[in-house]
Amino acid sequence: xxxxxxxxxxxxxxxxxxxxxxxxxxxxxxxxxxxxxxxxxxxxxxxxxxxxxxxxxxxxxxxxxxxxxxxxxxxxxxxxxxxxxxxxxxxxxxxxxxxxxxxxxxxxxxxxxxxxxxxxxxxxxxxxxxxxxxxxxxxxxxxxxxxxxxxxxxxxxxxxxxxxxxxxxxxxxxxxxxxxxxxxxxxxxxxxxxxxxxxxxxxxxxxxxxxxxxxxxxxxxxxxxxxxxxxxxxxxxxxxxxxxxxxxxxxxxxxxxxxxxxxxxxxxxxxxxxxxxxxxxxxxxxxxxxxxxxxxxxxxxxxxxxxx
Length: 308
Ligand SMILES: C[S@@+](CC[C@H](N)C(=O)[O-])C[C@H]1O[C@@H](n2cnc3c(N)ncnc32)[C@H](O)[C@@H]1O
Prior knowledge:
Largest sheet: 7 strands, mixed
Low-confidence stretches: 302-308
Number of domains: 2
Strand order of the largest sheet: 3-2-1-4-5-7-6
Helix content: 40-55%
Number of helices: 13
Bound molecules: S-adenosylmethionine
Structural class: alpha/beta
CATH class of the largest domain: Alpha Beta
CATH topology of the largest domain: Rossmann fold
Mean pLDDT: 94
């Protein structure tokens, strides 16, 4: 059994208030993580309801299944963009609520074998599902420096992306980059020293960019936003917590489709100063919630006009 979760759920009260769950509902937590939100969802649906909890990470699923044994939760190790297939396997047609709290959990960050933290001597892997796709160490040793720079710039919003990519290319000519510490050292050597020193580690943006690329996180979210309307009940609600401006933009644009969604959050909901003080991870969280309009929705997420 994996160690107990160290993750603190963000915006818990706001999520629960916007989801307005009633006893007996069927609710999906698309990102189980440490199970903080899942527990709140389970309590809200009560004994007559059910929660379906997904995560790409098999360790999160193993921990959740052990910690929530006996509660009305069905677990699936799956990408939330495959929600329709997960529901088919459970013979569930439509659900009442879906929550996605995207990105990385503190449990993944704390696990030295996964490569998410800069000072780990474990392999630079960065995959949520360690059986799927290419580990980051292979990507950084394989891709052309121009492509690496584009990834670091676009997904990491890192202004020194070209310098970092060039330094990676120089370093790997001598010996391949294997561990997170290897990469963190390369980044620190590549970026100019900041005055005053930055609040975050100089490699933060590079790691974030590679993680998003390795896991194809934006693609998963884009597909999920198209497919979820096909399996939400009319009037059902979707809440998404994003930590990255590109993710938040995808959510914002999806919810702008007024044939499908009624947005319940005009601007994104953010953590209070109190929550940020207690849980610094919540600083960049942005919650958006929308209600599915009453008409049926097809695969593309467009509601069919009445009579068609
Ligand atoms: C921020 S954590 C969720 C924390 C959780 N809400 C809690 O309260 O503990 C994000 C989780 O989502 C998972 N994840 C990220 N992208 C995913 C995807 N496309 N499908 C399923 N799980 C995903 C990660 O593996 C991670 O465990």
